[in-house]
Amino acid sequence: MTYPAFETLAVDRDGAVLRVKLNRPDVRNAFNGAVVDELQTAFRIASDDEQARVVVLSGEGKSFSAGADLSWMKEQATLDAAANESGAAHMANMFLSIARCAKPVVARIHGHALGGGSGLTASADIAIATEDTMFGLTEVKLGIVPAVISPFVMQKIGAGRARRLFLTGERFDGREAERIGLVSEAVPADQLDARIDAVVADLLSSGPCAVASAKELIRAVEPLSLEDAIPVTSKWIADLRATPEANEGMSAFLDKRKPDWM
Ligand code: COA
Asked: Hey, whose CA ends up nearest to atom 1 of ligand 1?
């Protein structure tokens, strides 16, 4: 699978790991229309890229991301109503392309993750941040709201915490982001890459179809009642345990050997 030459991203495949790095460090990786287009392209290709088994999303320079580029947001506001709205929908789809990527997405968060930067954090499956990363749903400070990111953030932190953070726009650190579930882990800065590598290694040691299926399972089960989940989950495991990958995984355990996933 080949990736186009990107202007605003650095994209490299490192074995089975696709590294997608936001690459506008001069504006703290604020995202404009080009970033929105390119991130969607990268994550859509990654979904179909058989060589990529994990995607690591990170930011070049001092910050992970300072959110939406405010010059671009101001420009968007001057468009006619239909173009303004379709631009916002396109931005929302950028977060969705990350959340729905067929590969597990690990976000490496450092420096700042403000506004849409917190949204990008929330759209990843697993986010690991430095303890001193500055987070915030700061939109109200700019007279706007965290609208398109709200479903992604609320799925991680819940409506109760969102009521405080969306309304005050207060900033908080990585430890607090871990406490409220926005990130899965906050670590000292000198341990960030080692923790990312450990999580990536864990993902790579699991069955690739099983990992993709686990991501889909969460999506399918979340809206269901316990009763309604039974036919869905029982068919799910019945289908999955009959696959060659499951046969290999369970056989390898019983034979006391490492599974051969490929
Ligand atoms: N949109 C556009 N430009 C941005 C930006 C954004 N969201 N965030 C930072 N920049 C630009 C700054 O304007 C500055 O440009 P300049 O060099 O031409 O003056 C450059 O990035 C560096 O920012 P600066 O504020 O000088 O860096 P810093 O390291 O002191 O602070 C932040 C970094 C992220 C804390 C600070 O820039 C900030 O608060 N940004 C706004 C974040 C925000 O509220 N995002 C929500 C968007 S919805």
From this structure: 69
